[in-house]
Design brief:
The chain is an alpha/beta fold. The protein has three domains: about 150 residues, 3-Layer(aba) Sandwich (Rossmann fold), CATH 3.40.50.720; about 160 residues, Dihydrodipicolinate Reductase, domain 2 (2-Layer Sandwich), CATH 3.30.360; about 80 residues, Alpha-Beta Plaits, CATH 3.30.70.260. It contains 14 helices and 16 strands.
């Protein structure tokens, strides 16, 4: 007989956890029909059990120790929404007991995801983490099930709602970077400290998770070359529009014969691309497979309820297996060899913008730096500035990334250059 209820231990009671509890209450009948039993939260771990909460936790045991919740005999399913590395011991405790885990902890998964999956496999249970990359977009479920045997050639994604909102606002409303960031904060799309978003670190963590599922390669997020959008100026977006591009912060995974090209950086992308229409706080994940061809997953990448829905979806799937007595083979999936293509050897096009003295011979000096590094120019636009300055915008042909960066370094050292050059990669495959 099925159990009378699936008992849930919850770690954390912040914004997403409160949203999860709300959905659990509002959709009780649908959950019961889908699972065959209700989901009942029996224990919650919080830092301060005496603090008042925004959710109704009457009848629920509150504890300060997450490991105690994971080890409790009245917990059949552990849901972790506390975040950070400190909860690892609690997740390990649950998995070693054979208790399935649902988590949204992108940071922990990007650091120790492979280890957690091996712990789950060793106990014949599962760890699910749909909400860790892409918020409410069910891309990880698709990769795990319908697309599990596909061989992907390309994954390129917009994975951070904060930076996407900032860039969209700069482009649409003509605001500068600081104004757009302030607007994102006021709307709740940016944290009080948005450093992880703006530097690209958040996108790198999510890319690491997606790559492990799509390419079966375990990649520490710290090993992914990462650049953020700090320093992006309104003029860069205007020039992108002039040449038929828009600007996005991308997470890229591209399979080459020489290895897997992984990187995170802002990029000019053609307006004809589907990803170019992913705006504001939305996320998009574009995939190209050998059998399936091209596909785009699109939706809200953040927010309490979209993320909570992804958590609930994982919880319902795990609960159905508990009720059905499903156990998994005790063997972790094998990762493919993780040969990498160094960023230095990646061939790409670049957008360059220079502010230089408006006098004869300067363009020849710039051309000398480019030619000396084997970088050729495909298009160029020059506009007169003020106070004897000129603005030069260039689009290069394909060149090695290292060569373009060397050329930019040489240009920056020219006496006639008034401001550090802007250099943004172009993604156009």
């Amino acid at each position: 007989m099925p159990p009378p209820a699936v008992r849930v231990g919850l770690l954390g009671c912040g914004v997403v956890a409160t949203g999860f509890l709300r959905l659990l209450r509002e959709r009780e009948r649908l959950i019961r029909e889908s699972v065959g039993a209700p989901l009942i939260v029996t224990r919650v771990a919080v830092r301060d059990p005496a603090k008042r909460r925004g959710a109704d936790l009457s009848g629920v045991a509150l504890e300060a120790d997450p490991v105690a919740v994971a080890a409790a005999t009245d917990v059949d399913l552990l849901i972790e929404l506390a975040g950070g590395e400190a909860v690892f011991d609690a997740l390990r405790t649950a998995l070693e007991r054979g208790v399935p885990v649902v988590t949204a902890n992108k940071h922990l998964l990007s650091l120790r995801g492979e280890e957690l999956e091996r712990l789950a496999a060793a106990s014949g249970t599962t760890i699910r983490y749909e909400a860790s990359a892409g918020g409410g977009i069910p891309v990880l479920q698709a990769l795990e099930h319908g697309l599990r045997t596909e061989r992907f050639q390309l994954l390129v994604a917009i994975l951070n709602g904060t930076t996407n909102y900032i860039l969209s606002t700069m482009e649409r409303d003509g605001r500068d970077f600081a104004e757009a960031l302030d607007a994102a904060r006021k709307l709740g799309f940016a944290e009080s400290d948005p450093t992880l978003d703006l530097t690209g670190a958040d996108t790198a963590e999510k890319l690491s998770i997606l790559v492990r599922r799509a390419f079966r390669v375990s990649v520490p997020h710290a090993s992914i070359p990462t650049e953020g959008i700090i320093g992006m100026e309104q003029e860069d977006l205007r020039q992108a529009d002039r040449f038929g591009y828009t600007v996005k912060l991308l997470g890229i995974a591209l399979r080459h014969s020489d290895g897997l090209d992984l990187r995170v950086h802002p990029a000019f992308i053609p307006k004809r691309y589907l990803l170019a229409s992913v705006r504001d706080e939305f996320n998009g994940v574009y995939l190209r497979g050998e059998a399936t061809g091209s596909m785009l997953f699109y939706g809200k990448g953040a927010g309490a309820l979209p993320t909570a829905q992804a958590v609930l979806g994982d919880a319902v799937a795990a609960a159905r297996e508990i009720v059905g007595g499903v156990r998994y083979p005790r063997a972790a999936p094998e990762a493919e060899p993780g040969k990498r293509l160094p960023l230095d050897e990646v061939r790409t096009k670049y957008y360059l913008r220079l502010i230089v003295e408006d006098r004869p011979g300067v363009l020849a000096q710039v051309a000398g730096c480019l030619g000396g590094s084997r970088v050729s120019v495909a298009q160029m636009f020059q506009a007169e500035g003020i106070r004897g300055e000129a603005s030069i915008t260039m689009l290069t042909h394909d060149a090695r990334d290292r060569d373009v960066r060397d050329a930019v370094k040489g240009i920056a050292g020219l006496p006639a250059v008034r401001k550090a050059p802007r250099a943004v990669r172009i993604f156009d495959l």
